[in-house]
Amino acid sequence: MGTSSRVAAAIVVVLGLVLSLAVVCNGGKTSSFVRKVEKTADMPLDSDVFKVPPGYNAPQQVHITQGDQLGKAVIVSWVTVEEPGSNTVLYWSAYSKKQKSEGKVTTYKFYNYTSGYIHHTTIRNLKFNTKYYYVVGIGHTERQFWFITPPEVGPDVPYTFGLIGDLGQSFDSNKTLTHYELNPQKGQAVLFVGDLSYADKHPNHDNVRWDTWGRFTERSVAYQPWIWTAGNHEIDFAPDIGETKPFKPYTHRYHVPYKASGSTAPFWYSIKRASAYIIVLSSYSAYGKYTPQWTWLEQELPKVNRSETPWLIVLMHSPWYNSYNYHYMEGETMRVMYEPWFVQYKVDVVFAGHVHAYERSERISNVAYNIVNGICIPVKDQSAPVYITIGDGGNLEGLATNMTEPQPAYSAYREASFGHATFDIKNRTHAYYGWHQNQDGYAVTADSMWFFNRYHHPVDDSTSAQ
Ligand SMILES: *[C@@H]1O[C@H](CO)[C@@H](O)[C@H](O)[C@H]1NC(C)=O
Ligand SMILES: *[C@@H]1O[C@H](CO)[C@@H](O)[C@H](O)[C@H]1NC(C)=O
Ligand SMILES: *[C@@H]1O[C@H](CO)[C@@H](O)[C@H](O)[C@H]1NC(C)=O
Ligand SMILES: *[C@@H]1O[C@H](CO)[C@@H](O)[C@H](O)[C@H]1NC(C)=O
Ligand SMILES: *[C@@H]1O[C@H](CO)[C@@H](O)[C@H](O)[C@H]1NC(C)=O
Ligand SMILES: [Fe+2]
C-alpha cells in the first residue's frame, strides 16, 4: 500500500467509527422512507366492505374471540337487525357430529342510536387444533363460517400471531387488513392493541360506524380470533349528549373471557394460546396501587409458568416507550407502576398502539429512580421486554410523523407508515418478528428481529451495532 492509500484507508476507518458512534449516541434507525401524505378519510357508508348481507334478519358483523383461558372455547358474536332471532350456534368438525350452543342477546342505546340485536354465544369443550364449521342465523337467513382451534398449550408449539392496532375504517385501514390477509406469513390469531372503529370521531359518536366496522372486519375476525384490548376510542364518554357510562358500545359488542383469568372487569385479562401467555392491560382503567387491575396483575404474574408457556406477551393501548411527539409520555404513570414487575417476571415483548406510527425499542428498563437519586435514564436490560408501538392500522386521524430528535438511544427503529406485524413463535427459544408496511409487497418486512426467549434463552438479541 502506498502512503496515500494508507491515509485513505485510515480515513475510511475513522469515518466508520464516527458513523457507528453516531448510531450508538443517537439511538437506532429512523427510516428515511417518507410516505406521501394523502387525505385520510373513512370509507363512505356505501362502500363494498360495509355491504349488509342479503336475506331476512341475516346475521352481520360476525366475530370470534377466545372463550376461555386455554383455547378450548370460542365466543361467537353477531348482530341481527330485524328481530332478535336465534341465539344458537350450530357447529361441527370432520370428527364430530353437529352440536348446538345457546347464548344471549343484548341491545343498547347511545344518544339517539339504538343498536341491533347483539348476540354472544360461547362454544365450549372444543378439541385442540381442529377445524370447526359454524352456522349463525338459525331460523331465518343462515350464514356459515369456520375457524381452527389452537394447538394444546405447550412449550414448543409453533404459532403465528398477527398484530394490528388503531385500525379504524379508512381506505388505509382496508389496505392494512388486506396486507395482513395476504401476508404469506399466515397469522392464526390477531392481537389487537386497541382503538377499533373510531365511531367517536363522527357526530354524536355515530354508532352506525360501530356497525360498519363490524361488517368491514368480519372477513377476518369471523374466521380467526382477534384478542381485544380497550383503547381510548372505546371509552365513548360523552356527557354533552348524556352518555356518561364509559365503554358502553365496546362492552356490548365485544366480549372477552375475563372471568376465566380471575379478572373482575373485561378491560384486563389473560389467555394462554399455544406457547404464549398473553396479558391484556387497560390504559384507561385505574391501575394505581390497590386498584382492581393492580391487585389482579400482582396475583397474575406469578401464575405464569414459563415451562408451560415460554412466551410472555403483554398488550396495552398507550405505549410506555414512545419517541414521537404524539401522546408523548401518556403511558408514563402506568410504566412507573408496573415496569419493575415486567423486568422481574421477564416479559418478552410489550405491544401497544395509540401513536399512529411504528417504533421498536431495544431491551431497556428505567426502574432505578426513587424520587431522590436522579437515576432516570433508560438503560440496557436483558431482563426487560422489547416495546413495540404498532398503532399504525391506518385510521382517519392520519399518521404521526413528528418525532423527537435526536432518536433516543433506546429506540431501535421507527417509521411513520401504516402497516401490521406478525410474531411467529418457532419453539421455546426463538420467535421471528416482522413488521410490514402497506407500501411494500405482501412478503416484505420493513423491520424484523429474531426474539430470544427471556426465560429459556436469555441471550442478547438486540439488533443495534453494539
Ligand atoms: C340523531 O341526531 C342527529 C342530530 O342531532 C341527526 O342528524 C340524526 O339523523 C339522528 N339519528 C337518528 C337515528 O335519529
Ligand atoms: C377493500 O379491500 C378489498 C380487498 O383488497 C377490496 O376488494 C375492496 O374493494 C376495498 N374497498 C375499498 C372501499 O377500498
Ligand atoms: C409448570 O408447567 C410444567 C409443564 O407443564 C409442569 O410440569 C409443572 O408442574 C408446572 N409448574 C407448576 C408450579 O405448576
Ligand atoms: C413537532 O412537535 C414539536 C413538539 O410538540 C413542536 O414544537 C413542533 O412544532 C412540531 N413540528 C411540526 C413540523 O409540526
Ligand atoms: C428453535 O427454532 C430456531 C429457529 O427456527 C432453531 O434455529 C432452533 O434450532 C430451534 N430449537 C430447537 C431446540 O429445535
Ligand atoms: Fe388511541
Automatic annotation (TrEMBL):
One of its GO terms (molecular function) is metal ion binding. Residues 160-358 form the Calcineurin-like phosphoesterase domain. Its EC number is 3.1.3.2. InterPro entries: Calcineurin-like_PHP (IPR004843), Metallo-depent_PP-like (IPR029052), MPP_PAP (IPR041792), PAPs-like (IPR039331), PAPs_C (IPR025733), PAPs_N (IPR015914), Purple_acid_Pase-like_N (IPR008963). It catalyses: a phosphate monoester + H2O = an alcohol + phosphate. SUPFAM superfamilies: Metallo-dependent phosphatases (SSF56300), Purple acid phosphatase, N-terminal domain (SSF49363). Residues 59-147 form the Purple acid phosphatase N-terminal domain. Gene3D superfamilies: 3.60.21.10, Purple acid phosphatase-like, N-terminal. Its cofactor is Zn(2+); Fe cation. It is an enzyme of class 3 (hydrolase). Keywords: Glycoprotein, Hydrolase, Iron, Metal-binding, Signal, Zinc. It holds the Pfam family Metallophos_C. Residues 384-443 form the Purple acid phosphatase C-terminal domain. Residues 1-27 form the signal peptide. Belongs to the metallophosphoesterase superfamily. Purple acid phosphatase family. This is Purple acid phosphatase. It comes from Prunus yedoensis var. nudiflora.
